[in-house]
Design goal:
Helix 1 packs antiparallel against helix 8, helix 9 packs parallel to helix 13 and helix 10 packs across helix 13. Helix 5 links the parallel strand 3 and strand 4. The protein has a 7-stranded mixed β-sheet with strand order 2-8-7-6-5-3-4, sandwiched between helices. The protein has a 3-stranded antiparallel β-sheet with strand order 9-10-12. A two-stranded parallel ribbon has the order 1-11. 48% of the residues are buried. By secondary structure, the protein is α/β, with parallel strands linked by helices. The protein has 2 domains: 237 residues, 3-Layer(aba) Sandwich (Aspartate Aminotransferase, domain 2); 123 residues, Aspartate Aminotransferase, domain 1, CATH 3.90.1150. Bound molecules: pyridoxal-5'-phosphate. The site of pyridoxal-5'-phosphate (PLP) has 12 residues, from helix 4.
Length: 390
């Protein structure tokens, strides 16, 4: 099976599993207790914090462990809402639901929210910031459907000039492209371990030193009081190891170049050999592992099922939209027609893939498209007539 859904989640690295297991089998003690074993657990957490901090060039004390990207985003947004009762938020219309839903909730509480529009290439348009004049800005680093890299430097420049706090949902970016909070001094940044070969259910919120935060969870005062709850120790250790390995890959620029070449090889094969195939998104500003392709006249949900049967796992739109038969909010924001949106697939490669994997994936796509086109009823629009094998 060829797993091409690394934007949804990634396989835990064997080194990560190995690093975690002593903290499940032997050192499972509560890190807050007073005996020696607990001290070892506590020091392993400190080590992991350092590794996560190193990945984004932060200080260890600026890293707060959370349960993942969703919690980190909620913590950032609700914290701001608490500190700025008259907050006028601006965010992008192509954010993940882990930003959009908290914002939606905040709008029911009387906060004013402005959504910046997207270009047809999946890049947030910042030109209206001067008219809206928000006093808080949240912009994702990389879009999770298209893999498009958002204009973070420009947004941050605006935020700094206007003294506006800035948060970025960098869940799809961290571990995939170099990120430095020194070079791009954001105030808060959300991270999720399972997107870079770490375990699920663990993430972090980077909070710049001195930035005022309000905890979301109150209780035993763990994470220096910012996030109560007994630590997910094995998860934290796994995330630390994953961060260390991701940093090594990022330091080796040929790794990212090779990944881009695999993706490009796949796209050229598909575009040149499958009629009605188009690649979506800004091709000059996207992650090297993402490929978002529309296959004219083919229902994406049907293609996902067929491709699975032919040995390729991928997504129709974002993982969170799977199963829904409507264009995602991202595709709508980009102005996709309903038909184009419904015929789009997201393939996301990993650093372990090779050009021969790209060829296998292409053959599967070609076969699936041919099969689906041959069974779809012409003239009444795409329909799914295929049922998965039992
Ligand atoms: C951009 C983005 N933000 C947030 C999340 C949520 O992260 P988590 O699954 O760790 O809660 C995801 C997950 O797909 C994502 O892609």
């Amino acid at each position: 099976m060829l797993y091409l859904d690394n934007a949804a989640t990634t396989a835990p690295d064997p080194g990560v599993i190995q690093a975690m297991s002593p903290y499940l089998e032997e050192f499972w003690q509560n890190p807050s207790s007073g005996y020696r074993a607990s001290k070892k657990v506590k020091s392993a957490i400190d080590d992991a914090r350092e590794k996560v901090a190193e990945l984004i060039e932060a200080k260890p004390e600026e890293i707060i462990f959370t349960s993942g990207g969703t919690e980190s985003n909620n913590m950032a947004l609700f914290s701001i809402a608490q500190h700025l009762p008259d907050a006028h938020f601006a965010s992008s219309s192509i954010e993940h639901s882990a930003v959009l839903k908290p914002l939606e909730f905040l709008s029911t509480q009387g906060r004013s929210i402005h959504y910046l529009t997207s270009t047809e290439k999946g890049i947030t348009d910042l030109t209206s910031l001067d008219q809206i004049l928000p006093n808080f800005l949240s912009l994702m680093w990389v879009n999770n459907e298209l893999g498009t890299i958002q204009p973070i430097q420009e947004a941050l420049k605006w935020a700094q000039e206007n003294k506006v706090p800035f948060h970025s949902d960098a869940v799809q970016a961290v571990g995939k492209i170099p990120i430095s909070v020194k070079g791009t001094p954001v105030d808060m940044l959300s991270i999720s371990s399972h997107k870079f070969n770490g375990p699920k259910g663990i993430g972090a919120l980077y909070v710049r030193e001195g930035f005022r935060l309000a905890p979301l969870l109150h209780g035993g005062g763990q994470e220096s009081g910012w996030r109560s709850g007994t630590e997910n120790v094995s998860g934290i250790i796994g995330m630390g190891k994953a961060a260390e390995l991701a940093k090594k890959r990022l330091n080796n620029s040929s790794c990212s170049k090779a990944l881009g070449e695999v993706r490009d090889h796949f796209e050229s094969l598909v575009v040149e050999n499958v009629s009605g195939a188009t690649v979506n998104g800004d091709l000059n500003h996207r992650l090297p592992n993402f490929s978002h392709i529309s296959l004219e006249g083919c229902e994406a949900a049907g293609l996902v099922i067929l491709l699975d049967e032919y040995g390729v796992q991928c997504s129709a739109g974002s993982a969170c939209m799977t199963g829904k038969q409507e264009a995602s909010h991202v595709q709508k924001a980009m102005g996709f027609s309903e038909e184009k949106a419904k015929s789009s697939l997201r393939f996301s490669f990993s650093h372990l893939h090779t050009k021969s994997d790209a060829e296998i994936a292409f053959q599967a796509v070609k076969k699936a498209v041919t099969k689906l086109r041959s069974v779809q009823v012409r003239g009444v629009g795409p329909v799914i007539v295929y049922s998965p094998p039992s």
